[in-house]
Write a structure and sequence with these properties.
Layout (H helix, E strand, L loop, with lengths): L21 H8 L18 H11 L2 H6 L4 E2 L10 E6 L6 E4 L5 E4 L8 H5 L4 H7 L2 H11 L7 E3 L22 H16 L9 E2 L1 E4 L12 E2 L3 H8 L1 H8 L6 E3 L3 E2 L2 E2 L5 H4 L17 H4 L10 H11 L12 H12 L5 H17 L21 H14 L1 E5 L11 E5 L21 H6 L4 E5 L3 E7 L5 E3 L10 E4 L8 E5 L5 E5 L5 E5 L3 E6 L11 E5 L5 E5 L2 H5 L7 E4 L5 E4 L7 E7 L1 H11 L2 E7 L19 H13 L3 E6 L7 H6 L2 E5 L6 H9 L33 H4 L17 E11 L2 E10 L5 E11 L10 E10 L4 E9 L5 E3 L4 E3 L3 E8 L5 E9 L13 E2 L5 E3 L2 E4 L6 E5 L4 E8 L6 E7 L4 E7 L5 E8 L9 E6 L6 E10 L1 E9 L2
Parallel strand pairs: 2-5, 5-6, 7-9, 8-10, 13-14, 13-27, 27-28, 28-29
Antiparallel strand pairs: 1-2, 3-4, 10-11, 12-29, 15-18, 15-26, 16-17, 18-19, 20-21, 22-23, 24-25, 30-31, 31-34, 32-33, 32-37, 35-36, 37-38, 39-49, 40-43, 41-42, 42-49, 43-48, 44-47, 44-49, 45-46, 45-48
Family: Belongs to the glycosyl hydrolase 3 family.
Protein name: Exo-alpha-(1->6)-L-arabinopyranosidase
Pfam family, one: Fn3-like
């Protein structure tokens, strides 16, 4: 069966495998020959550039080309071993691929830290740098098996979380660029280690650029006006690379302004200007093939790979372990003159730069070569995981002294996540697990528990037979055979929202899944894999019967069309068919989950309800969420438990903002945690019982609900996205988080010191418990040529204070930090303006304010007498941002009625002529109007059909009647592209 198109645009983790390519495997794994240790490239006393030059000069062209694929073969004559990019390590070493088994996935059994969004919710860079010593475990795994575990780590993800529906929200840090950059710097620095010349491991930032949707992720374009691009989406990448905390970027699947990110010229033109170190830039998995496949951007792979290499890609992640297509494409590109050997040398130099810094060519392997597998899941790392999980938890609400809990009280721990820990796509496999129930049981005087899920059986209405699990503990085909309901005929139903449920067999505790794309079998430890085959819907019919609908991978990609409903074959085996041919079942509830949970809650002093998400179902790679609600059945459970016992604590365990309006209104205490790894239960108990005073803070705005803008609209300025521009009232604001103690802010002082401002404030713990406070500094520019954020985070610090203790916290804000991207002159500019300086406990909880008067400059009126790029507009409606050519440059595409505007244009010299670079396949015109899209018409530029959207011609028209300083609107008629324009006299 051919692999579906989406599979070709996904990470290397694959559930389906082809037969190994033996010749390639032998080439990659053969033992290298002994090399002359006196060769200059092996001399660590020589300058790095000299060592790279020496090795590069010894390589043949074929050898250099072989290094451009992700799986770099050994070069035996020089004693060089194989090398590969791509060990996943977002929150601990997660998985890698086995070159000896055609890229089969090997999952790491090591320390699993909280998901990335949880790491950021600590607001603690120092802690995240310690967590970044995941690089140490990467070295341990590498020492264990260097063929499987490479030292080029694909982490962290610094894509900004501007839309909470993004399926990969768990992988990122924050909607704020400064916070994201700070955590990325910390985590990347921890990965790299503290040696100035060597790397413990090499962190690669994902995914450049503006990657925040999964729907049609390889064909959608993220439209980025220059200011949005520079001020927002580039910022965390720039921060990490400028700080030396990353060794390269991975390009995204999406397009940016009409050009695939895989061939984004910014890789060389922009990203590499942020550092003087070599960067190793890689493609996302399968992305080179998208250029000739789903994106149809180039006709041949030779053209595509050449363009990627010239744009700044160094390593091609594609075709699993088979490097032949890449090698063939590069050689073809060379023969066709699309590439030169110098282009190859440039990329190989970048690759070697990282390999040298990893110590590979040092005689002793460098300072990190002695790390052994003993570091993997060490006691110190387990303690760090527990500390991090506790510090990441956010107390959303706490009324009537509900928390912390009294250890002497009887607790009912209920809910579908009460006694389970889930991992995610980019998680390792914990070697042990402490569930919420386990952690609370260690602390409470008495504990009762219930998962709060229905236990049911399904009976065929026609035959009276019920589902039977088979006889093997590891799972077997489900059949209709028994006529009475025993344990082997019962299933626990877990509700994940929007009708999606999972079915766990009571007999063996495993989940019902699709086996071999055919029958149903109870053999899954948890829903997982790229093809999540454990998803079902129970569709009630008018007569009260149920159809069981398979809702896994095929329904998402329409492999089997309407054949998604369960039918009993003549031998009782369950297969799939159409709705009209499906078996009708009676759903018999053996035990009501809500009734069981309510009974336990009534008997307890306090009820802890643990609800949330399943990371492989509720949003994940390749699947965005379509709403932000808690699963309907889980919310019903919370309501029932609260009504039974008002002293209820809700623990919400998921990876993103959730609409929990009713819960917030009624339940007295709410604690949020992401999926936090093996130590989740211990950390949760530490917080619930007050051993750890919670101080995590939200890294995203939690909205009340309602309609969000289109997930594909990336212009946060125009659409008022994120806390930066959102003017509404959120459920919980950015930076929100409560404590068991209270803090007072006093004496805010702001002093100008050279090119910076020193901000200081005195913070006092006014409560009776020691605790952490996250002091946050925001600014707002009062006047500006352009729309300014409502407020913007400029600095933060997590501090620890004993009861009654005070501390003066000092921050430095550079004037340069207050700059905006000036589209009129394409540079960073600080405007003269008053700025509000706001210090507090969240973006909405401001405790102290001050004003500073920043001396900058006034951005001059627009001068369009010189050629001006069309994309440097000040506002727009309806247009698309597109690629000027396939190599570089941006343009604007509009249809009838669309417009762009250039504000404050200096027309005092009364220009008489407009010229523009335009392209169109059908022809049209561009109207120049003053003041509004329907204002005074001063020119109409005719656009002839140029035959190709990339074939630009110069069009001109006479300008009549302009004067003064006016807003100039360009209104499109027909389908037209414009790359630049100028207004001249004479």
């Amino acid at each position: 069966m051919p692999l579906p198109r989406p599979l070709r645009a996904m990470p290397l983790r694959r559930p389906l495998r082809r037969a190994p390519r033996v010749t390639l495997v032998l080439a990659l794994t053969a033992a290298p020959a002994r090399a002359d240790a006196d060769l200059p490239f092996r001399d660590p006393t020589l300058p790095l550039a000299q060592r790279i030059d020496d090795l590069l000069g010894r390589l043949t062209l074929d050898e250099k080309i072989s290094l451009l694929h992700q799986y770099q073969p050994p070069i035996e004559r020089l004693g060089i071993k194989s090398f590969k990019t791509g060990t996943e390590a977002l929150h601990g070493v997660a998985w890698s691929t086995d070159v000896t088994d055609n890229g089969a996935v090997v999952t790491a059994n090591g320390t699993v830290f909280p998901q990335a969004v949880g790491l950021a919710s600590t607001w603690d860079p120092e802690l995240n740098q310690r967590v970044g010593t995941v690089g140490e475990e990467a070295r341990g795994f590498h020492a264990q098996n260097p063929v499987v575990w490479g030292l080029n780590l694909w982490a962290p993800v610094v894509n900004l979380l501007r839309d909470p529906r993004w399926g990969r929200n768990e992988e990122g840090y924050s909607e704020d660029p400064l916070l994201t950059g700070a955590i990325a710097i910390a985590y990347g620095s921890g990965i790299q280690g503290d040696d100035p010349d060597h790397l413990r491991a090499a962190p690669t930032l994902k995914h450049y650029l503006a990657n925040n949707n999964e729907i049609r992720r390889d064909t959608t374009s993220s439209n980025l006006p220059p200011r949005v691009k520079h001020e927002y989406y580039e910022a965390p990448f720039r921060a990490a690379i400028t700080a030396g905390a990353a060794t390269g970027v991975m390009t995204a699947y999406n397009l940016v302004n009409g050009r695939p990110a895989t061939v984004n010229p910014d890789l060389n033109d922009t990203v590499r200007t942020w550092t003087d170190r070599d960067l190793l830039n890689v493609t996302d998995a399968g992305a080179p093939n998208n250029l000739v496949g789903s994106q149809a951007y180039f006709a041949t792979l030779a053209e595509a790979d050449a363009a990627a290499l010239k744009a700044g890609i160094d390593s091609f992640t594609t075709d699993e372990t088979n490097s032949a297509p890449t090698i063939t494409a590069i050689k073809t590109a060379l023969s066709q003159g699309l590439l030169t050997e110098q282009d190859i040398d440039t990329a190989v130099r970048h690759i070697l730069g990282i390999r040298f810094r990893l110590g590979e060519f040092d005689p002793d392997g460098g300072p990190y070569a002695k790390i052994t597998p003993d570091v993997i899941d060490s006691p110190a790392h387990r303690r760090l995981a527990r500390e991090t999980a506790a510090k990441a938890m956010v107390l959303l609400k706490n009324e009537r002294g509900t928390l912390p809990l009294d250890p002497g009280k009887k607790v009912a721990v209920v809910g579908p996540l009460a006694d389970v820990l889930y991992t995610d796509w980019y998680s390792g496999r914990p070697t042990y697990q402490v569930t919420p129930l386990d952690g609370i049981r260690e602390r409470a005087a008495s504990v009762t528990s219930s998962e709060g899920v229905d236990r049911v059986a399904f009976k065929d209405l026609a035959t009276g037979q019920v589902h039977h699990r088979g006889e093997r503990p590891e799972g077997a085909d489900l059949r209709l055979s028994a006529t009475t309901i025993g344990e082997t005929e019962q299933f626990d139903v877990f509700d994940w929202g929007q009708g999606i449920v999972t079915l766990r067999s009571v007999a063996n505790g495993k989940y019902v899944s699709r086996a071999n794309w055919s029958t149903l079998v109870n053999n899954a430890d948890q829903p997982s894999g790229w093809f999540v085959q454990e998803q079902f819907k129970l569709e009630e019919q008018d007569d009260g019967s149920y159809l069981i609908r398979y809702a896994g991978y095929e329904t998402a990609y329409d492999w089997f069309g309407p054949n998604t409903y369960v039918k009993a074959a003549p031998d009782g085996t369950l297969t799939l068919t159409t709705a009209g041919d499906a078996t009708r079942f009676a759903k018999e509830v053996v035990r009501s989950g809500i009734d069981d949970a309510v009974a336990k809650a009534k008997e307890a002093d306090v009820a802890v309800v643990v609800v949330g998400s399943m990371p492989f179902i509720n949003g994940r790679e390749d699947h965005d969420r379509t709403d932000m609600n808690l699963a309907e059945g889980q919310e019903a459970l919370v309501k029932a438990v609260f009504n039974a016992n008002p002293r209820t604590v809700v623990v919400l365990e998921n990876s993103y903002p959730t609409t929990i309006n009713w819960i917030d209104e009624h339940v007295p205490a709410i604690l949020w945690t992401t999926h936090a790894g093996a130590e989740t239960g211990n950390a949760l108990a530490d917080v619930l019982y007050g051993d750890v005073n919670p101080a995590g803070r939200l890294t995203q705005t939690w909205y009340l609900g309602g309609r969000l803008p289109d997930i594909l609209d990336y212009d946060i300025v125009q659409r008022d996205r994120t806390y930066l521009y959102f003017k509404g009232t959120p459920l919980y604001p950015f930076g929100h988080g409560l404590s068991y103690t209270t803090f007072r802010y006093q004496g805010l002082r702001v002093a100008e010191k050279g090119d910076a401002y020193e901000v200081s404030v005195r913070v006092t713990n006014t409560g009776h418990r020691a605790g952490d406070e996250v002091v946050q500094v925001y600014t707002h520019q009062r006047t500006s040529r352009v729309k300014q954020p409502v407020k913007q985070l400029r600095a933060f610090q997590r501090i620890t204070l004993a009861p009654g203790q005070s501390k003066t916290v000092t921050f430095t804000i550079r004037k340069a930090d207050l700059a905006l991207w000036d589209v009129t002159r394409n540079k960073w500019t600080v405007e003269t303006s008053a700025h509000d300086v706001m210090v507090g406990a969240s973006s909405a909880d401001i405790r102290q304010r001050a004003t500073i008067h920043v001396k900058g400059e006034r951005i001059p009126d627009r001068d369009l007498s010189v050629p001006t790029r069309a994309i440097d507009f000040d506002g727009y409606s309806g247009v698309e941002l597109v690629d000027e050519t396939k190599a570089r440059g941006d343009a604007v595409a509009g249809s009838t009625g669309d417009w762009i505007v250039f504000k404050d244009v200096d027309l005092k010299r009364r220009p008489s002529r407009v010229t523009a670079g335009v392209a169109s396949t059908s022809g049209g015109s561009i109207e120049l109007r003053l003041g509004s899209p329907k204002g005074k018409l001063i020119a109409t530029v005719p656009v002839a059909a140029t035959g190709d959207v990339y074939r630009y011609e110069t069009a001109a028209a006479r300008v009549t009647g302009p004067s003064g300083v006016k807003d100039l609107y360009l209104v499109f008629q027909g389908d037209v592209r414009i790359k630049d324009l100028s207004l001249t006299s004479g």
